[in-house]
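Lab notebook page, bench 4
Experiment: in silico fold of construct C2
Operator: M.H.
Input chain length: 47 residues
Purpose: comparison with the prior construct
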Amino acid sequence: FLGLPWTPGLQDQAEDRAYRNGQLRMVVVKIPLADDTIDQQLWQMLM
């Protein structure tokens, strides 16, 4: 992602796509956040 989705539903959908049908390996979703950015503020609201 270049930025976080604006709603929890879009975030969930994006993560769910990583767990595609037939996936046999463990999936790890990492979300990088930089200090003092809109993404950090959005993350705090979503969580």
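Observations: The chain has one domain: 8-46. The mean pLDDT is 82.
Next step: discuss at group meeting.
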